[in-house]
Amino acid sequence: MAGIISGLEDRGARAVDGLAQLAARFSGGTLRLGVTGLRRAGKTVFITSLLHNLLQAGRLPFLDVMAQGRFIGARLLAQPDGAIPRFDYENHLAALTAASPDWPHATRAVSEIRVALKFRPAGLVRRRLGGVGTLNLDIIDYPGEWLLDLPMLGQDYATWSAQTLSLMQTEPRLSLAGAFHAALTAVDPGGPADETAARHLAGLYTDFLRACRDSNVGLSLLQPGRFLEPGEMEGAPILTFCPLPPGSAEGRSGTLAGLMAERFEGYKDKVVRRFFRDHFARLDRQIVLVDLLSALNAGEPGMEDLRRSLSATMESFRHGQRSWLNWLGGARVDRVLFAATKADHVAAPQHAALTRLMEGLMEDRMRQIRFDGAAMKSLSLASVKCTDSVLTRHEGRELACVQGIPRGRTQPTVIFPGELPDSHLGVGAAVEDRFRFTDFQPPPGLGRDGRGLPNIRLDQALEFLIGDRLA
Ligand SMILES: Nc1nc2c(ncn2[C@@H]2O[C@H](COP(=O)(O)OP(=O)(O)OP(=O)(O)O)[C@@H](O)[C@H]2O)c(=O)[nH]1
Ligand SMILES: [Mg+2]
Fold it and tell me: In Å, what is the CA distance from 194 to each residue of 122, 171, 187, 214, 257?
C-alpha cells in the first residue's frame, strides 16, 4: 500500500513538476530582440547598458519583475549561433567604466549575445506550482551602415540607379559628388564591360559615400552599406558597382551597365538577403533607435534624410500579431518600440517634446505598423545618462539646461541646447543659432556603485519589449 501511495505521490510530483516547467516555459522561452538603428543611433551603447542593468539587477525601477521582487538574476550564456562572434560586452563596458571613460568604437561586424533571465512568475497558480521562469534573450549588434541595404532588396538596378542619381542632384550631396559626376559624363553605359572603368567609377562612388558620412550635414541614406563598412567582404568584386544613368543597356550583358546590374543583383543576393535572413527574418520584438538630435543639428534636410532612410528600412520587417498561421510563414514582430535616443542631450522638461517630434517624423510608418496589428509605443531614452538637468536664468527667463562634460573636454559645463520645435516641418535649413545638441563624455566613475549604468527610461523600454514574458 505504502508503495502504491509513494508511487502515486511520485507520479503526482512528476506531473506538478512537468506543469511547473510548462508554466515556466509559457512565461519564459526564447525571444529575439531586434535592435534597429542607423549608424551612431546608439545600438551598441543600448545593448551594453541593457545587459549591465540586467546582470546587476540595477537601475530598472519600473520593470515590473524588478519592482515586484520577482527577479532572481541574469547570466550570459553561450549564444545559439557559434559561427558569429559574441557581442564584446566586457570590452564595451570596460571602455565606459574606465578611469578615463570613453564610448565603444563604431561597430564593424555582426555579433550576437544571449542573456538568460530567471524570475518567479507573477500568477498565483504558476507561483503555487513552484515554477521558476527562464527567458533567454538573444540580441544582435551590427554596423548601422548595413541596415540601409535592406530597402535595396525591393529594387532592381535601374530603379536604384535612378533614385540614387536623383538624390545626388540636390544639396548637400551635389557638392560632394563633383568627381563622380565628372567621371560619369565620360562613360557610356552601353559601352563594353570594362573592369578598369567599373573599378574606377566604384572607387569614386565609394569616395562620395565616405565624404557624405564624414560631413557634418546629417546624411543618413548612404547605399550600399558595405561600401562603407565592408567587413569580411573587403576587396570583393561584388562591391565593384555604382549607379549609372538608366537606359536600356543594363539589360544587355557585355555592356558596362549590364556588368553593374549583374553585380548589383549579386550584392543583393549574396550580401543583403543573407544578412536579412540570418539576423532579421525571425525577430520577435523590435526597438527602433532614432538619433533625432543629430539629424536636427543638420536642419530640415537632415531630418528628411533620416525619415526617408528609416521608413524605407522599416518596410523590410514583418509586423503583426502572432498566430499559429504566422509560424508557418515565419515569425512576425508583434511589438515595436520607437525610442528617441540620447535624451540626456536635452533637459528633462524637453523629453516629451523629443518623443512627439519623433512621432511626427515617423507618423506614416507608425500608422502602418499599427494597421498591421503589432503593438507599438514610443518614448525617449538615454542608455547611459551623461548629464543632469539644471535651470538657469538668462535675461529674466528660465532656461532648462543640461550639465555634463562635453566630448573632448574634462570639466562639466552647463549648456542650453535650444528648445525643441513642435514639428519637424518648417525647421528650415540653417539651424546653427537655434540648436546645439552637444555630444557628451560618459561621466567618470560609471559602474562603481555596483548598480546598473545610469539611464533614462531603460526600464520602461524593457517593460514594453519583454515585460509580458517575465510575468
Ligand atoms: N549622451 C549620450 N550619448 C550616447 C548615448 N548612446 C549613444 N551615445 C552617443 O552616440 C554614439 C554612438 O553610439 P553607439 O552605440 O556606438 O551607436 P551604434 O548605433 O552602435 O553605431 P554604429 O556601430 O556605428 O552602427 C556614442 O559614441 C555616444 O557618443 C546615450 O545614452 N547618451
Ligand atoms: Mg555599434
Answer: 67, 31, 11, 30, 10
Read off the pLDDT of residues 210-251 as tens digits, 9 standing for 90 and up: 999 998 788 889 999 999 999 888 888 899 999 999 888 888
pLDDT tens digits for 313-331? 998 898 987 655 444 445 6
Last residue of one domain, picked from the residues 242, 275, 308: 275
Which-ligand-closest: CA of 104?
1
Residue 149 belongs to a domain: no
Number of domains forming the structure of the chain: 2
14 and 86 belong to one structural domain = yes
Residue 438 lies in a domain: no
Determine the 3-state secondary structure of 194 from DSSP: coil
Report which bound ligand comes closest to the CA of 45.
1
Asked whether residue 111 is domain-assigned, the answer is yes
Query: Can you give the CATH number for the domain in which 52 is found?
Result: 3.40.50.300
pTM: 0.92
**Residue 121, domain extent:** 2-142+279-385+449-466
Give the CA-trace dihedral at 74, 76, 81, 84, to 10 degrees.
130
Q: Which residues line ligand 1 (CB under 6 A)?
A: 37, 39-45, 103-104, 106-107, 143-144, 341-342, 344-345, 382-384, 386, 439-440
Q: Which of 286-290, 294-298, 424-428 has the highest mean pLDDT?
A: 286-290
d(CA 327, CA 318): 12
Q: Which residues are in the CB-under-5-Å shell of ion ligand 2?
A: 43-44, 107
